Amino acid sequence: MEEQRTRCGYIPSECLKSFQKALTEGGTIATGRSLHFAADIVCSGALQLIIPILWAHAIQHIGIASPRIVVYLKKRIGELEEFTRRLPDETAYSTEEFQIRMGELILVLRDAPTRTLVAWPKVAPETHAEGWLTAAATASETAVLLKVWRQGDSHILRKAGAELCRAITDGSTEKALFWIKWLFEEEMRIKKEVKGAAITTVERGVGKGKNGAGLFIITLFGEIYKELAAKELVRMHEEFQGLLDAWRSQSCKKHILALMTQVLCEVPRWKVPAAPPLIKDAVVMSRAIREVPKFFREVLAYDAPKSSVVKAFKAREAKKVKKVETTQIDAFDRALEDYFARM
To answer: What's the CA gap between 59 and 104, in Å, rounded?
Structure first.
């Protein structure tokens, strides 16, 4: 049986990889490839497959260089999804407004300033030994921490939370990420060693995974942001709320958490603690956008796939053998992704 292909004849997984690669490359040719692959994926009925790639690119490659990207991305993707809900697929794809908005999204992602997301620090196994936290945690409790910590939260969250607050106050992104990672590892250790044990029983969300270290940290971050905003040390209300919303809805939670940490640690030290403009040159951007419909017309000249590209992609991915985790960092990443997937 012939494998399902996109409108232009690509294997879906290869088309997505090519799009992802082109999105990170510079130059006019890469811009054209980005638009071509995006148009092919979307017009093949697989808008939902491209959305996680767009979010991951924005968080990992743009991030703190232009935090406004999260607000823009949420708004534009919402508009595209509304098109596909309101109109028949082929009608939506053929509508110039839909094409322009999709193309503009790709061009903005490519045009935005970039900054590689900060790396997570290593956490030595001995830091999870009995007595280590008591000896290492020396930070004083803050009003923000006491506002978030509640009966039902363990003393571990209280002590590590105080260290996290101090790291953010000091502007140390690396130390803040260390304590976040340490908390997730400690929570996983507790659950593994004692059946039914939990680092907290306080419910801070709704549905599956409504309690845990992740939601404690997110709640703490929200209160820290409010305190910084009240002191006019940061002016990114929409952007930070966009990150909170994205953390709850997107799959790249670990990267979003790292970006929120950067915002809280670094932005208060900026000369202007607000998000810079998203587009460098509006005139150049408008000229590029006018070329977008050509890419869609080229793709729409081919017949639509006879069966679901999304189902074919997911079936192929399900057959892949999981890679062996060879290092502690690999194991942490896998465990953390599994942890977030359950939330």
So the answer is: 18
